[in-house]
Specification:
Oligomer: single chain
Radius of gyration: 17 Å
Number of helices: 9
Strand order of the largest sheet: 1-2-3-4-5-6-7-8
Strand content: 15-25%
Bound molecules: zinc ion
Shape: globular
Order of helices and strands: EHEHEHEHEHEHEHEHH
Helix content: 40-55%
Number of strands: 8
Structural class: alpha/beta
Low-confidence stretches: none
Mean pLDDT: 96
Length: 253
């Protein structure tokens, strides 16, 4: 079991972060925590240093903060990412989110920041973790224009574009939204198993409500197995192996 996308730096874990990580260690092989705002970077790196071989980090600026970090304001952060490249397994989450960004200028700012993340990922030789909401076509267009190869579409919901995603050899990570979303269930059913990863997006998207933790990745795997009419062990082995390969994690001990 690997949680390929969570947010351990969130204040939701302020009181018991270390004990949450300890309980994850007992059940999971690894977790990839995603720093989505530069202000969370120091804590993210601290967690990676404290838990070598277990907590890995993907770092970027979420499209929601694109205007806040337009132009040179992201350069400083990108400099930090260059300095800390050995502590990163991926760049992101980056991408496009048009849900709140309705005006063209805001969307252009997102596209610009997205393209700069793509350039950084190429420079650092790291894969991309993509957040894409209400902007599927634009997001895939940019990834194709930039000839991106190592791509993980986190929580992807564009079932109608799955052929294009798989054709490019891009990966998709599913979380507990498969418990209630029909289109995500269809993705769980139709995505080639070799391109599928599992995640929780903790502390959000708890299957029971309240705070989520990476431990619920087990529920995701159980649900995906049920949808695909496959053995839980097989889905676990495949998604774990896919995550190890995608993020170039150290081999299993
Ligand atoms: Zn996220």
């Amino acid at each position: 079991l690997i949680d390929s996308h969570c947010h351990l730096e969130q204040p939701d874990y302020g009181k018991d972060r270390e004990s949450v990580i300890e309980s994850c260690r007992r059940s999971l092989r690894a977790v990839v925590t995603c720093c989505a705002n530069p202000r969370d970077f120091p804590l993210t790196m601290e967690l990676v240093r404290k838990h070598p071989g277990f907590v890995f980090a993907s770092c970027g600026i979420h499209p929601e903060y694109a205007e806040e970090f337009a132009g040179s304001r992201s350069c400083e952060f990108f400099g930090l990412l260059r300095e800390n490249r050995d502590g990163l397994v991926a760049v992101g989450e980056t991408g496009l989110d048009y849900f709140w960004a309705k005006d063209p200028a805001a969307r252009e700012a997102q596209k610009d920041l997205f393209r700069r993340h793509i350039a950084l990922s190429r420079e650092l030789g790291k894969p991309l973790v993509i957040h894409c909401r209400d902007a599927f076509e634009d997001c895939l267009d940019i990834l194709e224009q930039e000839s991106c190869r190592r791509v993980l579409l986190h929580m992807f919901g564009g079932h109608h574009l799955l052929g294009r995603v798989a054709g490019n050899g891009w990966h998709v990570s599913l979380n507990n939204i498969v418990q209630r979303s029909k289109k995500h269930r269809k993705i769980a059913r139709d995505m080639p198993l070799g391109l599928l990863l599992t995640e929780t997006d903790s502390p959000w998207l708890s299957p029971e409500g309240g705070r989520n933790t990476p431990l619920s990745v087990e529920d995701v795997i159980r649900k995906v197995a049920e949808i695909r009419k496959a053995a839980i062990e097989g889905i676990d082995a495949a998604t774990t192996e896919n995550a190890v390969r995608f993020f170039s994690l150290p081999p299993m001990g």
